[in-house]
User: Fold this.
Amino acid sequence: MKYNVDLDISVGTSHSLILNKIKRNTKVLEFGSASGYMTKYMKEELGCEIVCIEIDAEAAEKARKYADLMIVADIENDPWFQKVSEFSFDFILFADVLEHLRNPEVILKQATSLLNNDGIVLTSVPNISHNAIIMELMQGRFDYRSTGLLDDTHVHFFTRKSLLKLLDDCRLEPFEWLTTMRRPDTTEFQQKYSDFPVLVQHYLENRLDGDVYQFVTMSRKKKSDENPLDFTYRQHINYLDLDHCQLYWGEDSSFNELSSIQVPVVFNNDFKTYSFDIPLGVKGNLRLDPANTPVYGAIRGVKLFEITSSGTKREVNPDNTKITSQLKPLNNIYKLADERDFRFFATDNDPSIYIEGISLNGNLKYILEVEMQINNSIEEIITKLSHEMKNNELEIMNLSKENQRYSEEINVLLAREKELLDKNTAWSETYSDLNNQFADLKEIYKLLDENHKTIIKQNEERSLEYVSNLRDKEILIEELRKEISLMKYSFSWRSTALFRRMANKIRGK
Assistant:
């Protein structure tokens, strides 16, 4: 599959110019669909009904899932027309196809018969009269290559006049004529004007189509021979190799090349305000590609204005005009430290910055202004990066000193923590000992309490026994008293009274 590419194209390429002309929900006949990179866009983004004709079976198989009908055929040798003769199409595409045909007039006439009354044929073909090829011829070269203006599969070559003649022979009338343009030094031939005499340089630089890489045309069926539009002069300047910045818009942060604006950029060390006119009906978020080349730059401010129905320009969120803090680096871009500006370094040709906090509602026209300074000079970039590295080294040294100071403070805190931990351990051990002693004291108290209760019980029992014995003795004494009293009054007691007195005297009482 020689022509298997992704639709990640810059605005202004032949593919995007053609796709930008296709209307939504229309019927399309696409010749040379390749692997389906354009087919996919027309199906998924535009909702078109698509019939594809592709010579490469492998590529056709990849594109088949996006096509309503896929025909694998060599359109100059295979019977493809019968398979689509009952169809009528709004758009017929020959994107980089006609140059591969030995007799493009026959195929173009057949295809034109399939157009509806207001149908459009879109073509893109390489320009054989590009200055780079003339410069090659002047140096004795005409070497085919795998791709480009002298693609080794090209069998038919076009200039502006020969393409106009082909369209006229097929009864097609172009109503829009677009181009893609490259300077000779940015083509695959890398030719330089400075390699030729001054007079030759001036002649080549002033040629009508000297820098035109491809012609892109939109044509309808010719209805009369009166007052045809004049396309014998330059109408469209579209350099793909000029330096530019690009603003994208899209819902759900989904961006594509057809929803974007390019603005030329100036590379120097001065800040410049770049203005992007956003058309009516645009919804969603914004992404800024600050350049199409590696650069060192800074963004100082971003302002969004809405254009009211009366044409008044009114700033959105005037209290927050500088939203550099809401810029988020995406692809191939590195944010550099800066408290005031959004400074960055882009490493390749596709740097991207997402603008957070802005969402367009589609009801108004908008203007976005970006105050930016960018420089693509290798020497300047090296100087700036060297300066950044020195600043970073100083910052690293300061951070290292700060880190050392923090380390010392942390060591002091760690020592203090260890001291406290040791004290806490000692306190824990003391607490444990006291807790054990308290447990022992509780046991002793429990034993003493039990002994105390036992003694009290024993004393109570002894008291009861003593009281009982005392009562018994009191009763006995009382009984003895009674007996003695009885004895005193008895005869025997009285008769022996003399003898008791004598006995007492003898005892000395």
